[in-house]
Design a protein that fits this description.
Blueprint lengths: L2 H8 L3 H9 L6 H13 L18 E6 L14 H16 L3 E6 L5 H11 L4 E5 L5 H11 L3 E4 L9 E5 L1 H14 L5 E6 L4 H16 L9 E4 L8 H12 L7 E4 L2 H13 L9 E6 L12 E4 L2 H17 L7 E4 L2 E3 L9
Parallel strand pairs: 1-2, 1-3, 3-4, 4-5, 5-11, 6-7, 6-8, 8-9, 9-10
Antiparallel strand pairs: 10-12
Helix pairs in contact: 1-2, 1-3, 2-3, 4-11, 7-8
Length: 346
C-alpha cells in the first residue's frame, strides 16, 4: 500500500498524508487522526524520516513494534489490549506537544531494519512495545537506538534500560485470592501456549495466592490455549474432553492468563454443555473492552492502560529533555473487577 492509497481511503490529498506522517502543522487534529487511523487499519506503518526539511520545532517520538512475533500479531493495532495502549500513547504525546510515528521491524530482517531505524532517527525518543521480546532482543535494540528508549509492557531488572510494566504478579495474586475467598478449592488454570515474561509472572502470582490458602494447581488441571483467539478453540475443547473422560470432575473455577483466553474458554465450556458461572467460574486478565460485551460479562484483572502509556511517554520525554542518566523501572498495580462470569461456591 502507498501513500496515494491512504490518501484515497481517508478522502484527503497526498500532501495531507505526508503532513500527518511527519507530524508537521498544516492539517487539523481530526484530519491527522483520521489519516493515522486509516494507515493503522490497513497495515501501513511509516517509519520516521529526519531530513533537512523537517522543521526544528517538530518533536517526534517513535512507537516501535516487533510484529508477527509471538503474541504480537502483524495487525497488532487491531488487538484490543494494544489498541487501547496506542490510543493513550497518542493522547499523551499530543498533550506533551509531540507527534507519534509508528515503526515496525520484521524479525526476519531484524538487524538490517534496526540499523535503518537507528540511522533515520539518531538519538530519537522511542517507546518500544516489549510484550513479546526477550532479554537479548531488548539488549540489542537498546544498544542500537541509544539512551532515549523506554520499553513498555515487560521488564528485565538487570538491564540498564527504562521499563514500564504491569504488576503481573500482583494481578494474578488478586485473582487467586478472590477465587479462594469465594470458596473455590477445585481450580483449573488455562495458560497461554505462547510463553512470555508477563504470563510467567502471572502464573507465579496465582500460585502464591493459592499457597496461602493451602491449595495448589494440580498438573492435570492445567490446560493451554492460544492467547490471540476469541472464539472457541478445538485444542482446548479436546483437552477438557480428555480430562472429563478420565472420570475427573470439572473445576469449579478457571483462571485464564489473559482475557482472550478467558473469553475463548467461556465459549468452549458452553459448547461442552457447561454454564458460566453456574457450573464453572471464569476469571481473566487485562480488562479489555470486549470483557463487558461478552455474556456473561467477564470478571477480570484491570490493567491501568492509560497510566502505563502516560508513564512511558513521560519517561522517554524526560530522558530527552534532561541529563539524568539513571534508568527507571516502573510497575503499575492492578485491581480485580468482579462481574458475572464468576460467583462464590454455594
Amino acid at each position: 500500500m502507498k501513500m496515494e492509497d491512504i490518501a484515497q481511503l481517508a478522502g484527503v490529498s497526498k500532501s495531507a498524508v505526508s503532513l500527518a506522517f511527519s507530524g508537521k502543522p498544516g492539517i487539523g487534529p481530526e484530519t491527522r487522526e483520521r489519516i493515522l487511523q486509516v494507515a493503522r487499519e490497513n497495515g501501513y506503518l511509516p517509519k520516521a524520516k529526519m531530513s533537512a526539511s523537517t522543521e526544528p520545532q517538530t518533536k517526534l517520538l517513535t512507537f516501535l513494534v516487533l510484529a508477527n512475533s509471538g503474541i504480537v500479531l502483524e495487525q497488532y493495532y487491531q488487538q484490543p489490549f494494544f489498541r487501547e495502549i496506542i490510543h493513550y500513547i497518542e493522547e499523551r504525546c499530543r498533550t506533551k506537544g509531540y507527534s507519534l510515528i509508528f515503526s515496525s521491524i520484521d524479525m526476519e530482517f531484524f538487524d538490517r531494519e534496526l540499523m535503518a531505524l537507528a540511522q533515520e532517527r539518531p538519538g530519537g525518543g522511542v517507546v518500544l512495545l516489549g510484550t513479546n521480546l526477550n532479554r537479548g532482543q531488548i539488549t540489542d535494540i537498546a544498544g542500537m537506538l541509544g539512551p532515549h528508549l523506554v520499553v513498555l509492557d515487560t521488564c528485565f531488572d538487570t538491564l540498564p534500560v527504562h521499563f514500564v510494566e504491569i504488576n503481573n504478579y500482583m494481578g494474578a495474586y488478586q485473582a487467586g485470592a478472590y477465587l479462594c475467598r469465594s470458596g473455590h478449592r477445585n481450580i483449573g488454570y488455562i495458560a497461554s501456549n505462547i510463553r512470555i515474561h508477563n504470563f510467567e509472572e502471572r502464573q507465579n502470582g496465582f500460585k502464591a495466592a493459592l499457597r496461602e490458602y493451602e491449595l495448589e494447581i494440580m498438573p492435570a488441571q492445567v490446560f493451554s490455549a492460544a492467547p490471540t483467539i476469541l472464539s472457541s478453540q478445538r485444542s482446548l475443547k479436546a483437552q477438557l474432553e480428555s480430562f472429563l473422560c478420565a472420570g475427573r470432575s470439572l473445576p469449579t473455577a478457571f483462571f485464564c492468563e489473559c482475557d482472550y483466553i478467558a473469553i475463548s474458554a467461556m465459549k468452549t465450556l458452553t459448547e461442552l454443555g457447561y454454564r458460566v458461572p453456574e457450573d464453572a467460574s471464569v476469571v481473566g486478565f487485562d480488562n479489555i473492552s470486549e470483557a463487558v460485551i461478552v455474556h456473561p460479562e467477564l470478571t477480570t484483572v484491570h490493567v491501568e492502560k492509560a497510566r502505563l502509556a502516560y508513564h512511558a511517554v513521560d519517561l522517554v520525554i524526560d530522558s530527552i529533555e534532561s541529563v539524568q542518566q539513571v534508568k527507571t523501572k516502573m510497575s503499575i498495580d492492578t485491581r480485580l473487577v468482579e462481574r458475572h462470569s464468576s460467583r462464590p461456591i454455594a
